[in-house]
């Protein structure tokens, strides 16, 4: 599952929600992610200086809020 598009077909819908949550992510970052969960985790780590585990928890919480898990 690591590199599969977890939001394939819905990424454009959720990109805006991701941008609201993580405003430091650029539109270019979000375009490159293309709905791949591992790419989003990596971008959160890079932009916010988070450890992988912390970024994973943050993303899991976001997924739950948006009914993705």
Automatic annotation (TrEMBL):
Q: Which Gene3D superfamilies match?
A: YjbJ
Instruction: Give start and end of each CsbD-like domain.
Output: 8-57
Query: InterPro entries from the xrefs?
Result: CsbD, UPF0337_stress_rsp, YjbJ, YjbJ_sf
Family, per entry:
Belongs to the UPF0337 (CsbD) family.
Entry superkingdom: Bacteria
Quote the protein name from its UniProt record.
CsbD-like domain-containing protein
One matching Pfam family: CsbD
